[in-house]
Amino acid sequence: MLLRHTTAKEIERKALTINPAKTCQPVGAMYAALGLHGCLPHSHGSQGCCSYHRSALTRHFKEPVMASTSSFSEGSSVFGGSSNLVSAIDTIFSVYNPDVVAVHTTCLSETIGDDMTQIISKANEEGKIPEGKRVIYCNTPSYVGTHVTGYANQVTSFVKSFSTATPKKKNVVNLVAGWMEPSDMREIKRIASVMEARTIMFPDMTGVFDAPLTGTFKMYPDGGTTIPDMIATGDSKFTIGLGPYCTEDACVKLENKCKVKFEVLEIPIGLKATDRYITALSRHANLPVPDALTEERGKLIDLIADNSKYFWGKRVALFGDPDTLIPLTEFLLTLDMKPVYIVTGTPGKHFDEAMKDLLKDKVPEAKFKSGECADTFQLHQWIKQEGVDMLIGNTYGKYIARDEDIPFIRLGFPVVDRAGNNFFPTTGYVGATNLAIKILTAILDHIDRTCPEEKVEFQM
Ligand code: SF4
């Protein structure tokens, strides 16, 4: 009952966010960097930032997260962190021997105004970067944007630093993965392999955050996009970005740099978004959709049809990242549910426009909000004003769910109090089936627990 003092009455707030639906930019930059094989993320700032970003990822994935820091002191906070970074680069290559160091900035180094291009050039001139190794960077000031922006900036830096066009185009489709679980990326790649499409996914967290326990510590896990593959993205014949917030900038950069045309889709969460991904891949790879995928689709539709009476009309509140919320809202509508309150801390017009389009006919009473002032406190106030049948969001939602006694589906980042989120995909038809079953189970459990005794049904 930690939030029992939340009131239904809203008071206009301009400069106060309570329980924001986001985290800070470098968390995203660090996550994306780990999707490049042999890459060590480096946090250019003080130790506290780096510790927080590492622990945010470790708590969610239950895996060790390797990252280094420029370890700012009082001196570097005043005079700049140039010498810290140059000596950090030297130490990193001699002690940890990565192929790439992916530097991201923090609030402090951005406020000081450290010039990353100049510092990295200095390290290069001083011979601190060994032959064949690279130091790349992206700017991630956390007082603008969110972890989603940081992820996008890091992915764009991969394109800037590696993608190279040669005169020979290859029959390969690039898949730029937005922020999702390793299991989601695995599922998207599995669909591509069932279609026999040649693809390069970047970044790629499979085999990084879901690697098996072998008893041997690997500083650089076997997974991740390899550097040769990352370079070869410039020769692919097409790029599909999955999640506009996380991937559009990288797609645009790749087209400008290497003339690879692109299409940006929503992450394939749910029936329709998966249809669009498979159709786009089929079109751009020039391959038919195999029966095996049509069968998976049919099974999902069968599940939805069999249980439509439980899904129908259920009011849902959801919060998280826009690239997840947009296709998720669409899927809830496919299930005949009513997404009534939707909140993301990540700013951007696309979310507002997509929500307007999706909801205007089916749920005209829905409320949605994005940006720095959108928070889960207000979401809770909306729920207090008119209740919902379900809440979907990351672990922070458990307090609202407990306070209001509503079924709660954990989805998004971070989920730190339940296992399995990074194992069972929500993408593709298989992922949509997993998600529909989770939703259904939560609804049925709630009915079983709260209905009058004489109404408890054996068969549901
Ligand atoms: S918000 Fe800024 S100061 Fe705080 S942890 Fe993130 S980067 Fe560091």
Describe this structure in words.
The longest helix has 23 residues. A 5-stranded parallel sheet has the order 11-10-9-12-13, sandwiched between helices. The protein has a 4-stranded parallel sheet with strand order 2-1-3-4, with helices on both faces. The chain has a 4-stranded parallel sheet with strand order 6-5-7-8, with helices on both faces. Helix content is 45%, strand content 14%. The model has no long low-confidence stretch (mean pLDDT 96). It has 3 domains: 120 residues, Rossmann fold, CATH 3.40.50.1980; 120 residues, Nitrogenase molybdenum iron protein domain (Rossmann fold); 160 residues, 3-Layer(aba) Sandwich (Rossmann fold), CATH 3.40.50. Strand 7, helix 10 and strand 8 form a beta-alpha-beta unit. By secondary structure, it is of the alpha/beta class. The site of iron/sulfur cluster has 8 residues, from helix 2.
What is this structure, in a nutshell?
This protein has helices at residues 25-33, 47-61, 74-79, 82-95, 107-112, 116-125, 147-161, 182-194, 227-232, 244-258, 271-285, 291-306, 308-311, 322-334, 349-359, 376-385, 398-404, 428-450, and strands at residues 39-44, 68-69, 100-105, 134-138, 170-177, 199-202, 236-242, 262-265, 315-319, 338-344, 367-370, 390-393, 408-410. It is α/β, with parallel strands linked by helices and 460 residues long. Helix 17 links the parallel strand 12 (390-393) and strand 13.
Give short descriptive properties of this protein.
binds iron/sulfur cluster, 460 residues, 13 strands, 3 domains, Rossmann fold, single chain, alpha/beta, four-stranded parallel β-sheet, 18 helices
